[in-house]
Amino acid sequence: MMKWKKKTISKEKVIDKNILILLVLFMLGILAAGCRHSLALQDGSGNKKDGLTQENGESDKDTIVVGFSQVGAESDWRSANTESMKSAFSRENGYELIFEDGQQKQTNQIMAIRTFIQREVDYIVLAPVTETGWDTVLQEAKDADIPVIIIDRRVDVADESLFTCWVGSDFELEGKKAAEWLNRYARTKGIAPEDIHIVNIQGTIGSSAQIGRTKALSNAAREYGWDLIAEMPGDFTQAKGKEVMESVLRQYDNINVVYCENDNEALGAIAAIEAAGKRAGSDITNGEIMVISFDGVNADALGYVKKDKITAIVECNPFHGPRVASIIQQLEAGKTPEKFSYVDEEVFSANKTVISLSVDGKDYDVTILSEEN
Ligand code: AHR
């Protein structure tokens, strides 16, 4: 019995030794692969395409490499926009997408663009946080012969040949639609302009979305004689929207309209309104505070429209991925895409007081939301 036991133990030892050898060989294999990978990525050009070719063992000459510098992740709109870009520029669709989150900082975005240039990407896509300050880095991209496609917000550059084209929203038109909705509502309900006391929770200062929406509201307030009490930056975030609303509610007791420059701010503002024991709604002659906002992406915000907690949302469409892919395909085919392409956008409300709008001589229907749609 003892003998048998001894024999068994020594057999296990042999097995252990074999497993150990196999493990060592496996680890060495992984190490070797890792070295190959980093050498490929750090070769002379620093071009990730070379790395991929060696890694996959297949030619990537048809893969289009796109560097995308995104603003950040401040809102649901932004997340939907990122998603749209990621799914349009997938490997299955023949792309390699290098995604860089700028975390709301222009310096990060400039750094990302410089990295894309170093990596010799085929195209650069930029969603700029603010409008100004892009001339130098876009000149660098132009000198490197890399086409730059601007999406969403605009860039304010001295030479428009620094970018190939732009696709996004007409933010001032969005603001005009919101202001015209309020104007028609007030007129229909017989509310005097001087009885409309508005607070504007603005977006990121210096971004096209803020500039256009703020301009439209202040022009309308001047034209119609509304009382525009305050304009304060809410950075397009829910937390800041809440903070700003709490602060203005402490300072003013007559606010009856809050114009939020996006839905996330609106959600924050509503939380502050309710925490202060007030109601968000369209019945402003009976103490409610009307919330108007932009985007129409966040499901909670759309749910609030149906409950009249947000009275109207002017859509801002984030789905630019397929639009940019189509621009790139045009460029690949040697065509010249439109320099500026605007997307069509709707107005959503559950309130049937205003069912259509006229802005700059053009008519727009209001899409009435209900629990069914
Ligand atoms: O530039 C588009 C704006 O940016 C959206 O309205 C807002 O939600 C986002 O953060």
The number of domains is 2
| % residues in beta strands | 15-25%
Quaternary organisation: single chain
List low-pLDDT spans.
1-15, 29-59
**Major sheet: arrangement of strands:** 7-6-8-9-10-12-14-13
Say how many strands there are.
14
Task: Give the CATH level 1 class of the largest domain.
Answer: Alpha Beta
Q: Secondary-structure element sequence?
A: HHEHEHEHEEHEHEHEHEHEHEEEE
Characteristic terms for this protein:
six-stranded parallel sheet, 373 residues, single chain, alpha/beta, binds alpha-L-arabinofuranose
Describe the structure.
This protein has 373 residues and is of the alpha/beta class. It contains eleven helices and 14 strands. The strands form two sheets. Strands 7-6-8-9-10-12-14-13 form an eight-stranded mixed sheet, sandwiched between helices. It has a six-stranded parallel sheet with strand order 2-1-3-4-5-11, with helices on both faces. Helix 1 packs antiparallel against helix 2 (48-56), helix 3 (76-88) runs parallel beside helix 11 and helix 6 packs parallel to helix 7. The longest helix has 40 residues, at 2-41. Residues 1-15 and 29-59 have low confidence and may be disordered.
